[in-house]
Structures are given as C-alpha cells and as structure tokens.
Specification:
Radius of gyration: 20 Å
Helix content: 10-25%
Strand content: 35-45%
Largest sheet: 5 strands, antiparallel
Distance between the termini: 21 Å
C-alpha cells in the first residue's frame, strides 16, 4: 500500500535528515533530496484516490474490499434505509468542484433492471443508492466498483 507523502517526509526527517554523521554529504542533504523526489512524484499524480469493491446483503451495512486509498482518510459505511447507504470519511476530504466518482454496479447476475447511484453530499460524505426498477432495494451489489478521486 502506498505511503502518504506527508508521512514519508516525516519518516525521512526522523530517520535521515535529523541524524548527524561525519561524511562528505550530510544526512540533511540526503533527506532534502529525498523529500524533493517525494514532492515530484506527488505532482505526477494530480489526485488522491479511494477505490474499493463494495458488497451489501440483507439489511447489513455495505462491506468494502479496499483496492487503493491515498487520501490519508479512513472510510466507514452505514445503512440508512433499504437501498440507501453512506460512506463517511474520518475528516473532510472531498473538495467542491475537485471530487469525481466512478462506479459500476455488479449484481452478480441476480438482479435485472438494477441501478446504483453514487453522489457527494458534502466534504465528508458520499451516498450510494441501489434500485431494482424504481424500488430502493438492499442486497443488489456484489463487489461493485467505486473510485473517488480528489484532484489537487
């Protein structure tokens, strides 16, 4: 799993930059160069991402198999009512006009005429709705893909 750039830079400080050794190149110089590399690599990816495979059955809360999370935030799932679920970040991470979602429903062939909607309702929350025809329905999604990108 990728390490958060801020965490990596702090680790560089604690393990390299702040060490003192008698050599031609100082640990501070090495640490500074390594942090420059971290900054450069961070600029190459113009967004942070949370992606997961989501499943839900019966009246249970959705479960997530996390594929990638570079947001620095943890996410929890709740069930509000039949076919209505919420993803809540541990802090405000979703930026207005800079957050995008990509999703695909996977019903495992069990439900025809089913739909899944995913949309933001603020800096900390996303809602997932699942339907068969026009009825909000539980138990539709099996390893449905969701990806949330937060652009810099």
């Amino acid at each position: 799993m990728p390490i958060n750039p801020t965490t990596l830079k702090a680790q560089i400080d604690s393990e390299i930059t702040n060490e003192t050794v008698d050599f031609a190149i100082t640990p501070a110089e090495v640490g500074g160069r390594m942090k420059d590399v971290v900054d450069y690599a961070t600029e190459l990816t113009p967004y942070k991402v949370y992606s997961a495979l989501i499943s839900q059955s019966g009246t249970s809360i959705p479960t997530a198999k996390i594929l990638n999370n570079t947001t620095g935030v943890t996410f929890a799932y709740t069930r509000n009512s039949a076919g209505n679920y919420m993803i809540t970040g541990s802090s405000n991470v979703f930026t207005t006009d800079k957050t995008a979602v990509n999703c695909s429903i996977n019903t495992n062939g069990s439900f025809s005429n089913s739909r899944m909607y995913v949309y933001s309702i603020g800096a900390q929350f996303f809602t997932i709705e699942t339907y068969t025809a026009t009825t909000a329905t539980d138990g539709i999604i099996t390893d449905a893909f969701i990806e949330i990108r937060i652009y810099n």
